[in-house]
Amino acid sequence: MKSLRKLVYGETLLSIALISGGFLTLFMFFDLADELQNLGRRSDADGPVYQLRHALLYVGLLLPNRLYELLPISVLIGTIFVMARLAQSSEYTILRTSGLDPWRALRLLLTLGSVFVALAFVIGDYVAPAADKASQLLKARYQGRITVGQTGAWLREKQPETNYVVNVKALTPNNDMQGIEIYEFNAQGVMQGMIEADRAQFEADDAWLLSKVRQKRFGSPAAATAAGNTEQPMVQTDLPQMRWPTQISSEMVAVALLRPDRMRTIDLFTYIRHLQDNGQNALRYEIEFWRKVFYPLSCLVMVILALPFAYLQMRSGGISAYVFAGVMIGISFFMMNNVAIYVGNLQQWQPWLAAAAPGLLYTAVSLTAFGWLVLRR
After folding, report:
1. Which pLDDT score is estimated for 40?
2. Main-chain phi, psi angles of 279, to 5 degrees
3. What does the longest C-alpha to C-alpha distance in the chain come to?
4. pLDDT, tens digit, 9 for 90 and up, residues 127-165
């Protein structure tokens, strides 16, 4: 059994590594070609110039996320190639006559798939989010700030007897915020004041340090009506700095400004709780959260789907057709995984169902193929 594991694991790991390297090289070439148009740009007139070495560093920081997205496809193609090659050379027939029954072969591949599940989780939850944030900050340093459209990111927070709606226009490379607007409402939904600030920094004690602040306070509409005024009175105060206590952390602002599918699972969970506590729709982020949970498990689905290829009758030169079939299956899984997220968001599906639907479908297909080609035939 030790020799069997050494043979199968060694061949499969080498195949998956080569395929992953080929995919990463291809996507790195595309990303670099896309970045060439930005060479020579500056964030401002006196800012540093975006050079080729910066583009190479930016493309390199995208590789962990590319690997995370491509890992299930690479596992599928690599395992199919090894299984088909062993069947073509009759090595798998020898292994079967030596006592390798289908269930033992399935356990063998599931053990290997579990390694890639752990690898996908580590890359997707730790390496890729840090690298993606560093790449965005690098791009912002040389080409401008990080923002979402023209309106920026909107957040909401409930505090005792007061509700706040916060708008952050952009995030700088130094993790500072720009263009801050904070709208204050009472429990009845009446606007009581507004705070505008050019910049803001995250403090360690759950607060923001606002700079160049313009604070506007509105009087009571009832008091204004009693005094015979038709307009609500306003008092404006200009302050060089102001400390605003809040539970909105830097991770929450980053989730709102950056792509949620490239954030850590714990950050997404915290942001979802924040949205739910403040009565906001969190469906999009819930789907992304469950997708982060289920996506690494797709590596197990891929190895189950690859096992029946070892039991097919192979002809000379026919292995390329099975590898091509593996590529098509992997691409279809990748496309369905993305489509299910948008459909689930539009149709208001249960978040876990929208995220798990592609994996469940391909699991059913793989188990059906395993039962028909392996157990029955």
Report:
1. 79
2. 70, 30
3. 98
4. 988 888 888 778 777 766 666 555 677 888 887 778 888
- Residue 96 DSSP class: H
Q: Are 67 and 127 contacting, i.e. CB atoms less than 8 angstroms apart?
A: no
Residue 350 confidence (pLDDT):
87
Looking at residue 313, what DSSP letter applies?
Answer: P
Contact criterion met (CB below 8 Å) for 355 and 290: yes
Query: For residue 148, what are the contacts with CB-CB under 8 A and spacing of at least 6?
Result: 256, 257
Count CB-CB contacts under 10 A for residue 147.
17
Q: List all residues 6 or more positions away from 1 whose beta carbon is below 8 Å from its beta carbon.
A: none
- 30 burial type by CB count under 10 A (0-12 exposed, 13-18 middle, 19+ buried): exposed
Q: How far apart are CA 184 and CA 161, in angstroms?
A: 10
CA neighbor of 55 nearest in space, from 135, 171, 127, 172: 135
Q: Given this model, what pLDDT does residue 45 score? A: 61
What is the identity of the amino acid at 359? G
SS3 165: strand
Please give the model's pTM, rounded to 2 decimal places: 0.76
Cβ count near 116 (within 10 Å): 24
Residues of the chain with pLDDT under 50: 224, 227
Tell me 54's DSSP state: H
Residue type (1 letter), 352: W
